[in-house]
Amino acid sequence: KNEVEQSPQNLTAQEGEFITINCSYSVGISALHWLQQHPGGGIVSLFMLSSGKKKHGRLIATINIQEKHSSLHITASHPRDSAVYICAVLPPGTASKLTFGTGTRLQVTL
Amino acid sequence: DAMVIQNPRYQVTQFGKPVTLSCSQTLNHNVMYWYQQKSSQAPKLLFHYYDKDFNNEADTPDNFQSRRPNTSFCFLDIRSPGLGDAAMYLCATSRLGQGLSNEKLFFGSGTQLSVL
Q1: Backbone φ/ψ region at B40: left (φ over 0), alpha (ψ -120 to 50), beta
Q2: What is the tens place of the pLDDT at every residue in A64-86?
Q3: What distances in angstroms separate CA B72 from CA B24, B32, B40, B98, B112, one per listed residue?
Q4: Most exposed: A66, B62, B97, B109, by fewest CB within 10 Å?
Q5: Measured between alpha carbons, how far is B70 from B90 in angstroms, rounded to an integer?
Q6: Which residues 21-40 of A have a C-beta within 8 angstroms of B?
Q7: Chain A contacts of B3, Cβ < 8 Å?
Q8: Is A8:A104 a contact under the CB 8 Å cutoff?
Q9: Is residue B99 predicted with pLDDT exceeding 50?
Q10: pLDDT class for B22, splitting at 50, 70, 90?
């Protein structure tokens, strides 16, 4: 079992829909990252969370440390949101080893 | 403006011919990472620098080396590329604060390496 599990693995939505991507992890963490990767592209860091909730434009990320769970929400989805969304966690007291989830491939259609 | 810059965007090399990938940053971050990402897989950490301290992952092949001549630049050297080394190579930076509190990661756009 992976230490970081994401669901769903693949998601297709119509433009305008509200989207939720979930991430569950089984290890202690100091922070959790939500990352976005477009096909053939580099990675963009969307959020880094250690507690609570963060919002940036149409994106909202929440984390529940007790339940070891985080969600990424996209409101009013748009085709340009189509990408792979990756959850990654950072163990405490380390600069280095992010543990990555398997990613959620999102396709937003017109 | 791009803050973590990787060059080149695409690199083609021949089997066994040494290749160097470069990464530069304008953020003055003290930590720089190199990741390898193969198709449809999660990125895999190869090594990272905390300032000048080099930290190699245990399963990173000896074929992969890195140099960080100053804060801004970091290089990935592949001494004898094999076909299995074809991948996207991602550079990332972060600032490690006091108490080992890590801050947000910034990734470069990656270098797609092909080995012929």
Answers
A1: left
A2: 999 999 999 999 999 999 999 99
A3: 5, 9, 30, 21, 21
A4: A66
A5: 19
A6: 30-31, 33, 35, 40
A7: none
A8: yes
A9: no
A10: very high
Q: Which two tokens stand for residue B111?
A: 């270098």
DSSP state letters, B24-65: EESS--SEEEEEEE-TTS--EEEEEEETTEEEE-TTS-TTEE
The values of phi and psi at residue A56, to 5°, are -145, 105
Instruction: Determine contact, residues B57/B47, Cβ cutoff 8 Å.
Output: yes
Length of chain B: 116
Task: Report chain B residues whose CB lies below 8 A from the CB of A105.
Answer: none
User: Band of the pLDDT at A27, cuts 50, 70, 90?
Assistant: confident
Q: Quick one: tokens of A16? A: 């305008």
